[in-house]
Design goal:
about 750 residues, mainly beta, 9-stranded antiparallel beta sheet, 8-stranded antiparallel beta sheet, about 40% strand, globular
C-alpha cells in the first residue's frame, strides 16, 4: 500500500518492498496455522491454487523419477561396511526442474501460479533441494502432498540463505506438488531451480513405526534422564543433503555472545555445501517416558542455512554456524564444554538413534582412552565408552555429544560396536584434541569457541534468551508419570474421545503465574480415524479463558478447525496460533468432536490414573456443565490430557516489560519507493512527543539507539550496518511503549 507524506510516497512495511535487495519483514506476531504443518521456519498461508476448484485447474504435469526398489537399496547398504553411526535413509536423484522447463503456469485471483508434481513410486518420503531460490517481495513457495493434507510453507524471501539454496525437510509421501506464487507486479522475476530429489527407501520420516530405535533406549523424560533436562535442549537432529541422519550439539563460546555454533561429526557434514544443504530439527522428542514404546514427537521446529567454520577428518568433527539464531520458541540451549583431558567419573549422551525421537544413554563408569580403528585418526584421541549401563547408540547417533558427569560437552560420537543386544565399545573423539591439535584455524575449535583467547579450560552452558524472551512448554505431568489410552468403564470408547456417553467437549487446565504469550500447543492423539472425508470429519481445537467464578472453562478465546485426516495418531500434533494470545493464571486448551460419522474416532492420551489425593486437570462437558473426569462414574479417574502449551514470557526485550498488545500499534514502519535508499522509516500515528528508538537482536542485546522527536512525518532509521537476521525495534515515549519485529535479508 502506497502512502503519501508531503511530496514523497512510501510503501507500508507489510508490503515487503526490497531496498537494494534488502528485505525487511515487519510483524508483531508471526506464527501461522497450516493443515498438517511440518518443519522449517516458514510463514504460513495457503497456496493460491487451493482457492480454485479442482475442476477449474489446469492438468498438472508430473516429473516421474526412475523406478527403484527400496529393498534393493537397503540390501546394497547392508553389504557395505561402515565404522560410522550415521543413518542413510534416502537415495538422491539429480534433476533439472524449473518454471522454464517443467510444470504449468496459470493465473489465480491476480497471482501467477506455477505448479509441478514430482513422483518417485514407493518412496517412504520425498525431499527436494532448490539450488537456487531467490524470490521477490510477495512471492511464496509451497510444497504439499497430492491430497493437500501435508503442507510446508510458505517459504519466501525471508528464508533466503547466503548460498541461495533452500533444502526442504522430507514429506512422508511418494508424490509431492511444488507450487510457486508470484504477484503480477514484482520488482524482479523469481529464480527457482530444483537440482535434487531424494527418494526415502527407509521408513524413518513422518510415518515411521513407533520405536524405530532399539527398545533399550531411554526417552528424555524418563526419571534417569532428568539429569540432562537442560542439556537435551542443546541436541539437534540433522538431515544432511536430504539423505543422511545425524545428531549435533549447540555449544557456547568464551565471548558468550549467543553465536549459534553447532558441532557434529565430520563424516556427517563433509563440506561447506553439506552445511548449506542441512536441515536442523529441534525438540524432536517424546513427551513422556515410553520405555520402548514412545509416543512420536513432532519435527516442526527446524531451520536451514549454516556456514562451515572448521572441520577435520582425522578428528572427525565439523563446526558450523547457523545463519540465524534459533527463535525463542525453539527453546535453544548452548551446552557448556570442557576441553581438558581429565577423565570424568561417568558419562552420558543425548542423540537420535535411527532418526527416532531423542534418547539418552548413560555409563556410570569412567571412560577409557583409546584409538578407534580408522585410517588416519589421531592415536589415543578417543573417549572409550566400554559399556553403556542404560541405552546404546545406533545409526543416526553419529555426531552426538558425550557429556561428562558435570554435564559438560567433551566429545562427539564417531562410531563403535554398541547395540541393544551388546552395548559395548563406543568411541567419541575427545574435544581436547579437536580443540587445537591442528594449528590451522579451519581444522580446530579453539579459534571459534575461544575467540577472545582467554585460555579457559571449561565454560558453563547458556540459555541465549535468559535475558530476553524465554520460551518453554507447559505440562503438569511429572517425569515419573506415563500416558495411556483409557477406555470408558461399562461402556464403549475412550475417556478422552469418542465414547458411548457421547461427550463432545474436553479441556486440559493450565496455570501460569506470570503473564505469558501462548503461541502454540501440541496434542498427543492416540486415535485419529476418519471414516469418510466430509465436512463433519473434523476436530475443533479450543482455547478458553477461566471463568473466575467457577474456575472452569469460560470465555472462548480461539477456535481452530482441522480435518481429522490432517492429524496423526500415536503422535504429538503441533498446532500454531495465527495470533499469539496473552494469558495469566488459569486457562484451558481443549477440543470438540462430533458423532455425525459413525466410523470417526478421536482419542487423546491421558496420564496414568493418579491416587485419590493427586491432582486432576482433565475436564469434559456433560449435560451442558464442565465437570472434572473423576466426577463422572464411567470415567472415575484423576488425570491430565496429553496436551502441551507453548509460550514465551511477555518481555521481548529488557526495556519493555509490557509491550503493546497485537493490533494496538501507534508506530508503523514504511519503506521508501526509491529502492536505492538503504533505509526504514518510522511514522508516529498518534501524539507527537520525544522518545527513543532502539534496535535489539533476538537475544536482547542492544545494537543501537536514537533519541529524537517522534513526529507524524517519516523518521529515517539507518539499517545499513545490520546483517541478515531478525531484530526487535523498541519505540518508547513517556506515554507509550511498543516493540516491532524486523527481518533483514541482504542480497547475495
Amino acid at each position: 500500500m502506497a502512502v503519501t507524506f508531503g511530496d514523497k510516497s512510501y510503501i507500508w512495511g507489510n508490503q515487503f518492498r526490497p531496498v537494494k535487495r534488502i528485505l525487511f519483514l515487519i510483524y508483531i506476531a508471526a506464527s501461522m496455522v497450516s493443515f498438517s504443518s511440518y518443519g522449517q521456519v516458514s510463514y504460513g498461508g495457503i497456496p493460491a491454487s487451493f482457492n480454485r476448484l479442482k475442476s477449474a485447474q489446469l492438468p498438472l504435469s508430473v516429473v516421474e523419477l526412475a523406478a527403484v526398489s527400496n529393498l534393493d537399496l537397503q540390501l546394497l547398504e547392508n553389504q557395505s561396511s561402515s565404522i560410522y553411526k550415521k543413518q542413510k535413509f534416502a537415495r538422491s536423484f539429480d534433476v533439472d526442474i524449473s518454471p522454464d522447463n517443467s510444470g504449468t503456469w496459470e493465473m489465480v485471483d491476480g497471482m501467477k501460479v506455477w505448479r509441478v508434481a514430482i513422483r518417485s513410486r514407493g518412496a517412504y518420503s520425498l525431499s527436494i533441494l532448490f539450488d537456487r531460490a531467490i524470490l521477490p517481495t510477495g512471492a511464496s513457495i509451497f510444497i504439499y502432498s497430492a491430497d493437500h493434507q501435508i503442507l510446508r510453507g510458505a517459504f519466501n524471501a525471508n528464508n533466503e540463505q547466503s548460498s541461495g539454496m533452500l533444502p526442504i525437510f522430507p514429506l512422508p509421501v511418494d508424490e509431492i506438488i511444488v507450487e510457486y506464487n508470484e504477484p503480477e507486479s514484482v520488482t524482479f522475476k523469481g529464480e527457482l531451480h530444483i537440482s535434487q530429489v531424494n527418494h526415502g527407501y527407509k521408513n524413518v520420516i513422518g510415518t515411521r513405526p513407533l520405536g524405530a530405535a532399539g527398545s533399550c533406549n531411554m526417552d528424555v523424560y524418563c526419571k534417569d534422564a532428568v539429569i540432562l533436562n537442560k542439556e537435551k535442549q542443546s541436541v539437534v537432529q540433522l538431515v544432511v543433503d536430504g539423505t543422511d541422519l545425524c545428531t549435533g550439539t549447540l555449544v557456547n563460546n568464551t565471548r558468550r555472545d549467543k553465536t549459534p555454533y553447532l558441532i557434529t561429526a565430520g563424516h556427517c557434514i563433509q563440506s561447506a555445501s553439506d552445511a548449506q544443504r542441512t536441515v536442523y530439527s529441534f525438540n524432536y522428542e517424546s513427551p513422556f517416558c515410553g520405555k520402548g514404546e514412545s509416543v512420536n514427537g513432532y519435527g516442526e521446529q527446524s531451520m536451514t542455512g549454516s556456514i562451515l567454520r572448521a572441520r577435520s577428518d582425522s578428528l572427525d568433527f565439523a563446526l558450523v554456524e547457523l545463519e540465524m539464531l534459533p527463535p525463542p520458541e525453539y527453546r535453544p540451549y548452548y551446552a557448556g564444554w570442557d576441553h581438558g583431558k581429565t577423565t570424568p567419573l561417568s558419562t552420558r549422551s543425548v542423540h537420535h538413534p535411527k532418526g527416532d525421537v531423542k534418547k539418552v544413554s548413560i555409563d556410570n563408569d569412567a571412560p577409557g582412552i583409546g584409538t578407534y580403528n580408522q585410517y588416519g585418526s589421531v592415536p589415543n584421541s578417543y573417549w572409550w565408552v566400554k559399556r553403556w549401563d542404560i541405552g546404546t547408540t545406533e545409526p543416526g547417533s553419529s555426531g552426538g555429544p558425550l557429556f561428562s558427569d558435570a554435564n559438560l560437552f567433551i566429545g562427539t560420537l564417531q562410531g563403535g560396536l554398541a547395540t541393544c543386544e551388546n552395548s559395548v565399545n563406543d568411541y567419541y573423539v575427545m574435544m581436547a584434541y579437536q580443540w587445537n591439535h591442528s594449528s590451522l584455524t579451519t581444522k580446530q575449535l579453539k579459534k571459534w569457541l575461544d575467540p577472545l583467547n582467554t585460555g579457559e579450560l571449561k565454560i558453563e552452558a547458556m540459555n541465549p534468551y535468559s535475558l530476553g524472551s524465554t520460551c518453554d512448554h507447559f505440562s503438569d505431568v511429572g517425569a515419573a508419570e506415563t500416558y495411556e489410552l483409557t477406555k470408558i468403564v461399562n461402556g464403549r470408547g475412550y475417556v478422552s474421545g469418542h465414547n458411548s456417553l457421547k461427550i463432545t467437549s474436553y479441556a486440559q487446565e493450565f496455570d501460569q503465574t506470570a503473564l505469558t504469550t501462548i503461541s502454540a500447543f501440541s496434542v498427543g492423539l492416540a486415535k485419529a480415524v476418519s471414516s469418510v472425508n466430509n465436512s463433519n470429519s473434523n476436530i475443533l481445537f479450543q482455547l478458553y479463558a477461566v471463568n473466575e467464578a467457577t474456575g472452569l472453562p469460560g470465555e472462548l478465546l480461539k477456535t481452530i478447525k482441522m480435518p481429522i485426516r490432517s492429524l496423526k495418531a500415536e503422535t504429538m500434533n503441533f498446532i500454531a496460533l495465527d495470533q499469539p494470545i496473552q494469558v495469566k493464571g488459569k486457562y484451558f486448551i481443549g477440543y470438540d468432536i462430533n458423532y455425525s460419522n459413525s466410523g470417526d474416532t478421536i482419542a487423546v492420551y491421558n496420564a496414568a490414573p493418579r491416587k485419590s489425593s493427586d491432582l486432576n486437570n482433565a475436564y469434559c462437558l456433560k449435560g451442558g456443565t464442565w465437570e472434572p473426569f473423576y466426577w463422572i462414574p464411567e470415567i472415575n479417574l484423576k488425570t491430565s490430557l496429553l496436551i502441551n502449551s507453548y509460550g514465551c514470557g511477555s518481555t521481548f526485550t529488557p526495556v519493555d516489560p509490557d509491550p503493546t498488545p497485537v493490533g494496538d500499534t501507534q508506530f508503523k514502519i514504511y519503506y521508501p519507493n526509491d529502492p536505492g535508499l538503504n533505509m526504514l522509516y518510522l511514522v508516529n500515528t498518534g501524539k507527537e512527543e520525544y522518545g527513543r528508538v532502539i534496535f535489539y537482536d533476538l537475544s536482547g542485546r542492544k545494537l543501537s539507539e536514537e533519541q529524537r522527536m517522534l513526529t507524524t512525518t517519516p523518521m529515517e532509521l539507518n539499517c545499513s550496518q545490520l546483517r541478515s537476521s531478525v531484530y526487535f525495534v523498541a519505540v518508547e515515549t513517556i506515554s507509550k511503549k511498543e516493540v516491532l519485529k524486523a527481518r533483514v535479508i541482504r542480497s547475495r
